[in-house]
Amino acid sequence: xxxxxxxxxxxxxxxxxxxxxxxxxxxxxxxxxxxxxxxxxxxxxxxxxxxxxxxxxxxxxxxxxxxxxxxxxxxxxxxxxxxxxxxxxxxxxxxxxxxxxxxxxxxxxxxxxxxxxxxxxxxxxxxxxxxxxxxxxxxxxxxxxxxxxxxxxxxxxxxxxxxxxxxxxxxxxxxxxxxxxxxxxxxxxxxxxxxxxxxxxxxxxxxxxxxxxxxxx
Amino acid sequence: xxxxxxxxxxxxxxxxxxxxxxxxxxxxxxxxxxxxxxxxxxxxxxxxxxxxxxxxxxxxxxxxxxxxxxxxxxxxxxxxxxxxxxxxxxxxxxxxxxxxxxxxxxxxxxxxxxxxxxxxxxxxxxxxxxxxxxxxxxxxxxxxxxxxxxxxxxxxxxxxxxxxxxxxxxxxxxxxxxxxxxxxxxxxxxxxxxxxxxxxxxxxxxxxxxxxxxxxxxxxxxxxxxxxxxxxxxxxxxxxxxxxxxxxxxxxxxxxxxxxxxxxxxxxxxxxxxxxxxxxxxxxxxxxxxxxxxxxxxxxxxxxxxxxxxxxxxxxxxxxxxxxxxxxxxxxxxxxxxxxxxxxxxxxxx
Lengths: 217, 350
What we know:
The complex is a heterodimer.
Chain A: H1 4-33, H2 38-50, H3 53-64, H4 69-75, H5 85-110, H6 113-121, H7 126-134, H8 139-155, H9 158-164, H10 174-183, H11 187-216
Helix pairs in contact in A: 1-5, 1-8, 1-10, 2-5, 3-9, 5-8, 5-9, 6-7, 8-11, 10-11
Chain B: E1 4-12, E2 15-23, E3 27-31, H1 38-46, E4 53-58, E5 61-65, E6 70-71, E7 79-82, H2 94-100, H3 106-119, H4 135-148, E8 153-157, H5 165-181, E9 185-190, H6 193-199, E10 202-207, E11 210-216, H7 217-222, H8 227-232, E12 237-245, E13 248-251, E14 256-259, E15 268-273, E16 279-281, E17 289-299, E18 303-310, E19 318-323, H9 324-330, E20 335-339, E21 346-349
Parallel strand pairs in B: 3-9, 3-10, 7-8, 8-9
Antiparallel strand pairs in B: 1-2, 1-4, 4-5, 5-6, 10-11, 12-13, 12-15, 13-14, 15-21, 16-20, 17-18, 17-20, 18-19
């Protein structure tokens, strides 16, 4: 049995989660401090969650494809993203980002405003207030957002298919492997990967619950 | 010059806040019912809320001036703000919390930390997290954190509201110690007349967002001249009043005609009388006295609180507080003749 889909999925999902983790937190920080254009920015950042993954994939194809602006730019350095695991990671990042962003934003906004007022009057800089007060007191939200982002990145299908294609051993993730196996009538393989993905998802939820329970006691 | 000048307006929805105050090296009380804009006033001065219009000047520094477009961020105002809940950072120990407000680092910071920990009786609790402390310890730690940041002005927003009476008393003593060393102004916001009376020299009454004149506490408690001030200074018996003649008026809610030796103002609107100022009388009819049903008796530690109602019916209840000894001697059961002594009237004009 070729286990490469598992490793590709883990590689892509970990990368996607990491990118979504960092950008989601930074985007949430920017948006909570905005006064004007707040809902505009929020709408923009939530877009990838609302659009069908195929549309997302299509947008990125236009952007990083051979004739797209980013694609042309990369051609100068002899680089190509299409049909590589990196583009699958990009798709996973973008798909996972809104989940991270929305969850941590909610958590940041839940932090007691009295704490922030106290920090401000004590003379703490906005940067310190965020990293020393708001962030540590939103750990549950950050944990929940990370798990959701990981789950979304693991299950990404539509955009990945359009950007990275279905190359066994190179870009074929578990979800795509299941699709291919069913298409070919290879049910044992489909069962196998289904069990693996159930295990992965279930494990993620167990970890999340463990973290939340530990935090709340 | 050590003084605070604040004059500003802010509107949120239908609520209008209008503040006007000057404080000079003193502890000023701001007395008001819940929702009258007390916290909003302090937040505007601290800089975490921005007023719509006006000016705030502290010790010669302009903190806010809508005309000159000055609006210092709270970080640069050097003002200490203590909210109703202690607002200690839950992810930090007592010592780390205190360190947050100290400008310097190293030895100097450690020295300040040691001083406030000692001053506020927090020794042994330095490495405790807020969820490991009791209510009184939390407020002392919050106070220590505020003082360690060396503010020029203290803003205290009902700092005792979550404490029981014994702790309240202890924290009041801690605050009095602070003021012995602190040279700036303090605004002390509360809805509790006892706290304000214990701690403040002058008192501003905030009524529905409007700040009335500022008066010395003696003067305010002796002659509260507005309905809100009368209520806030602890008068429970207030009735609508209608002037009849120069020395006679009717207390509408109690259905009684009252006489006063002092001339009654033309635009009399309310009459008030403190619960402990009522006097029991004999059976005979007397001036300013009325026969009342005894509706309910409540035992307080040192007195009896009696709910009375004019027997003529359809009247608002009157609260009477009487010492236990005296109540026993009276041996009253269903009715009692009660006098409203005219020298105790609080007459409020429209």
